[in-house]
Amino acid sequence: MRILLASSEVHPYSKTGGLADMVGALAKYLAQAGQQVGVVTPLYSGIRERFPHLRPGDIRITLPLGSRHVQADVWTLEVADRLVIYFIDQPDFYRRATLYQHQGVDYPDNAERFLFLSKCVAHLARNLPWKPELVHVHDWQVGLVPLFIRHQRLEEGWVDAPKTCLTIHNQAYQGHFGADAYEWANLPLDYFEPNGVEFYGGLNCLKAGIVYADRITTVSPRYAREITTEALGNGLDGVLRLRQGVLAGILNGVDYDEWNTTDNPFLKHSFAADSLEGKATSKLDLQRELGLPEASHLPLFGTVTRLVEQKGVDIQLSALEEMLAAEMQFVLLGSGESQYEKAYKKLSARYPTKVAVKIGYDHGLSHRIEAGCDFYLMPSKFEPCGLNQLYSLRYGTIPIVRATGGLDDSIIDLAEDVERATGIKFAEYSSSALVKAIRKGLILFEHSDLLLHLRTNGMSADFSWEKTAQKYLKLFDKILSE
Ligand code: ADP
Ligand code: GLC
What is the position in ligand 2's atom list of the atom closest to the CA of 19? Predict the structure, then answer.
């Protein structure tokens, strides 16, 4: 099968969150399974320096964007057999150090930046010599691609146009712009209507994908159900209900080549389910690295996250306020909204021997936190899939999660199944429910047999991408046969 993926971030080139991990891994494992794969993504600042093998391709694209024409060069990187990354080099749009925002405020030209990216994707899909037969787009930034392809098929003679699939990683981000932005699509006004791309008088890029893609997936089965409800639909539940027949959830996998506890360049000590000494040493190392007292007898809780409402920051902050009287430690690595950054810094200033907070982005430290902690806190308000709870399982760190989206699909609580339990789950979105869950963690910490049982279950759970990629391939087969 010949598949072209498109995403505004792809690990290891650019990343703000799990979207990058997911697309990078999906591409890799589809290619490993024998498919021809391309990925289109922007060439942001720093990528060329970090990947000197990038080749300036001979593809130059000039496309209309409203009343002007914008030019881009396409750089390519052949990563593996059958896997090529196409980087769109448009310096005005993408040569920036951060992807979407500056100091917490969205770039004012995001509509142009990502409509242009979407046009480049459709252009490459049409002109690449290997003729992709399926275009798989991820999130709102490339949400207009299915419409561009459809329009060119219906109106501009693209007879063998590829089929399209949209994956929604987060329905809360929609790329909702003013009506003026539609001008940059250079499409007839016919599509700018309630059954098309129009949403409350403006342009909604995610809605465009939902309406015009041949198939829609989300990154967990439960989230696929949740987004068709008013509570978690973010205003698009009605549109999604109309397309429920082509909507399905596939839980993300983990790239165990990278997220593992042996031969990991970010970890000093290896460990495995049957030899946990390295984990105990990793805990002491982490405490030292973050300036906490080195104490194996204290339960260590951790979180690595974007600091945004979605992640349950408010209930986590108040639950910690209540719990920190207990003998425990907590470490956080995160960045995001400044009110949350400040609140966490304040907490660590008040409890310097119990709380360590690192504001910023640090890939290596994220591995060391996963490895060194006893428990991983993820009390998300909603969570399309979530990857850190899956990384935690492999790293022998017991996830404490709220039962929502992919967290509910991937973690088994003791109350559900003692034999197969991997973590602690709570349902209600409140700090008191989280406090109870943390207390359960403290009790579990005192019962080393049970703790080991959960740990071993988690470490041997299999969320490998090989399996997940097969599910996508099955779906793609179905799309192509329709
Ligand atoms: P989301 O995509 O909603 O942020 P996920 O759990 O799917 O949540 O994925 C988050 C990814 O981003 C994980 O790989 C996590 O380790 C990483 N991450 C988040 N914040 C940071 C940070 N401050 N430093 C390093 N990695 C981070
Ligand atoms: C989004 C979601 C997260 C998911 C990730 C990768 O960022 O917030 O839950 O794991 O995409 O699919």
Answer: 6
